[in-house]
Design a protein that fits this description.
about 180 residues, alpha/beta, six-stranded mixed β-sheet, 4 helices, about 25% helix, HGPRT, nucleotide binding, magnesium, cytoplasm, magnesium ion binding
Length: about 180
């Protein structure tokens, strides 16, 4: 039923699983002997983070932040708001920010600046998807699952107006769904 609103599937469940395995192995290798704090950015990254941490063969801690720069729209407002802050201190910790997608870079840039002022030992970024064609602020992701085209993608945690997060695939949303036509 959900997929009737999808123009085309970009990544299947199997594609996503392979990406999680690859990223999990990279993080496991890079963080040997450490206890990283993985910060999931709600709500979009929750599905990705849940599957990703199962692929990491280390002790990790998790926490969450909820930030918004989109509201119900399809274009970032440019204003980042913290809706839910961390429960855990980051001071002296090795941090991995877990994002569903890096688009304009505004949200990620804002989060990294905040975590630096809170004296994190190190900050790295793991994103399921990167959309460099939309970058407004130069940010770097240390772990990138896949690159996506400049189209509106949903599924596997990504939404449009709180819909489509529960799709097991990632697809391009039909423009008529969000354009009102």
């Amino acid at each position: 039923m959900l997929e009737q609103d999808i123009e085309r599937i970009l990544y299947t469940r199997e594609d996503i699983q392979r990406v999680n395995e690859k990223l999990g192995k990279q993080i496991t290798a890079d963080y040997q002997g450490k206890n990283p704090l993985m910060i999931g950015i709600l709500k979009g990254a929750i599905v990705f983070m849940t599957d990703l941490i199962r692929e990491i063969d280390l002790h990790v801690e998790i926490d969450f932040m909820d930030v918004s720069s989109y509201g119900d729209g399809t274009i970032s407002s440019g204003e980042v708001k913290i809706i839910k802050d961390l429960d855990t201190s980051v001071q002296g910790r090795d941090i991995i920010i877990v994002e569903d997608i890096v688009d304009t870079g505004r949200t990620l840039n804002y989060l990294m600046a905040i975590l630096k002022t809170r004296q994190a030992n190190s900050i790295k970024v793991c994103t399921l998807m990167d959309k460099p064609s939309r970058r407004v602020v130069p940010v770097h992701s240390d772990y990138v699952g896949m690159e996506v085209p400049n189209e509106f993608v949903v599924g596997y945690g990504l939404d449009y107006a709180e819909r489509y997060r529960n799709m097991g695939t990632i697809g391009v949303l039909k423009p008529e769904i969000y354009s009102g036509k």
